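Notes from hallway chat w/ T.B., transcribed later so I don't forget. T.B. wanted the structure written out for a chain they're using in a teaching module, and asked if we could keep both sequence and structure tokens in one place. Agreed to drop them here.
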Amino acid sequence: MKLPQKIKSYFARYGFHSWKEMDWNEKQSAFTYPEEENLLEIGSLLRQLDNAETPDNPKLRMNRKSARIFDSLDDLIPWLRAVILEDLKETSLESDEHGWDFRYFTQKHNSCQDTICICNGLNSKIETGQNCIYAMASIRKFEGKYYGWSNVFPA
């Protein structure tokens, strides 16, 4: 296996993905700081989320035991804001240091139905075509409760 494929397969295993061309205009509600308006948009999107057949997906390390469980969006949104703010501390410093532009956005999980992700997308200001996207939090709804997983704030 060639080195670039080895590197890509390593990052894919941990939820990092890269695209040659990434257009922020294609991303719903992209933002750099979690303002109230952004959190309301995320809440609106999560309200429309269908109930999953089961709360977990062990293949994607989304186990019920490791989830944070929220009775309502009012309980979930402050946690999501805290996840974003914690990631922002590191991302803002590193992006200045390495010449990256970054935005947070929501998207459906690529391989897990009925799951929404809060992602961080970074792209290089220096070299074109250098992008990285990773999910900071994944949310599913099951029997009216919201289940959240995050690599920023593990349960």
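Follow-up for T.B.: The radius of gyration is 16 Å. Might be a good example for the class.
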